[in-house]
Amino acid sequence: MRKHAITVVSGLPRSGTSMMMRMLEAGGLAVLTDNIRGADEDNPKGYYEFEKVKAIQHDTSWLPDASGRVVKMISALVRHLPPEYEYRIVFMRRDMHEILASQRQMLVRRGEQAQDDDGRMAALFEKHLREIEEWIGRQRNMQVLYVSYNDILSSPAAESASLNQFLGGGLDEPSMVEVVDRALHRQRH
């Protein structure tokens, strides 16, 4: 991969993407974020989002600014990454029961209706993940590292070393480990 590839942190919502963005920033990578969505009870250390990412289907004008940086993107949008760039994707995985519980809790806090059919939602999410992982595997301009949120919490040093190797070395691994906050693992399975 070229040095100026775009690093994308992706995964399902509530899979640990914000924590990964914090880790990579602490490791020394520049993040692309606009801080429009501020920290709240569900993400007390911030979301690390870049609002323009949500419109990638229609607007890719921001991608040159992402070169050599890290940007967060939910897994449903990854298919819209244009082929003229090279990408290093850090794809977050998390226990599905924890994802669903975390999403439900976030919706409840917002006063929104939460899904009550975990089995159906889990099947839909699992199907989506299989499809997106197969699609990424066919892309010549993408390299991917699958990272378990649960493994980061149990072995942050080993996972930071793995990330550092995948991203070409030079990251500050001790600083990456330091930002892992096990207290934020509130939905456990």
How would you describe this structure to a colleague?
The structure is a single chain. This protein is α/β, with parallel strands linked by helices and 189 residues long. The chain has helices at residues 17-27, 63-66, 96-110, 118-137, 149-154, 156-166, 173-178, and strands at residues 6-11, 70-74, 87-93, 142-148. It has a four-stranded parallel beta sheet, sandwiched between helices. The model has no long low-confidence stretch (mean pLDDT 86).
- Give the CATH superfamily: P-loop containing nucleotide triphosphate hydrolases
Mind describing the biggest β-sheet?
4 strands, parallel
What is the SS-derived class? alpha/beta
The quaternary state of the protein chains shown equals single chain
Radius of gyration: 16 Å
Could you give the count of β-strands? Answer: 4
Q: What is the count of helical runs?
A: 7
According to CATH, the fold-level topology is Rossmann fold
How do the strands of the widest beta sheet line up side by side? 2-1-3-4
**Assigned CATH class:** Alpha Beta
Strand content: 5-15%
What is the residue-mean pLDDT, rounded to a whole number? 86
Task: Report the principal-axis shape.
Answer: globular
| Tally of distinct domains | 1
- What are the segments in which pLDDT stays under 50 over at least 5 consecutive residues? none
Name of the CATH architecture: 3-Layer(aba) Sandwich
String of helices and strands = EHHEEHHEHHH
Q: Which percent range fits the helix content?
A: 25-40%
Cα-to-Cα separation, first versus last residue: 37 Å
